[in-house]
Amino acid sequence: MLPPKHPRILSLLTISLALNCFLGCASYRLGDATSAPFRTIYIVPTLNESYAPLAAARVSAEIRESFIRDGRVTLTGNEAEADVVLSVTLTDYRRTAQTRDQNDTVRARDFNVALAAKLSLYSPGQGNYYFRDRTVSSNTSAYVGNPYGANGTTNFDYRQAENLAMNRLARDLAKGTLSAVLGNW
Fold first, then answer.
1. What are the domain boundaries of the chain?
2. Which candidate, 67, 15, 12, places its Cα nearest to that of 43?
3. I need a labelling partner for 53 at 20 to 30 A (CA). Which of 4, 20, 27, 182 fits?
4. Coil, helix or strand for 101?
5. Separation of alpha carbons 182 and 131, rounded Å
């Protein structure tokens, strides 16, 4: 602490500290600083060439929502009005058992679910691709049953567990797609 006989030094120190704080943060901006070389995007409905049940609609909706939330580009409903066209094809879906039921070793209790997609970003105005067949993938765990529940609690069956896992996979694929399209190349 400075002695009280130097109030001028104390006030100058306080002013310079406040000025440094304000000027140091003056150039800070919220959000991602990268900008895309295009302003509008049309997203083709997702094709499902995998065995993922009802995944195309979920993935399409999540991808659209992720672009809307990000806000750096505008979605268009018409391919002719878009600067770029994004096409997504689900290519691979895998479900692998992680743990087995202790009473029935054929029956899985938990499994890993993975979904892969290929992305292509085309510029109709320039007539070329920014990228073609770029792979994005996601995986998560699905849990069948409730090992911590009391006797008589309802267990998840495989379809319910897979349905919940598909929502997570779709969100993760949407994040990966957004990163691939708007990230630094």
1. 33-182
2. 67
3. 182
4. coil
5. 12
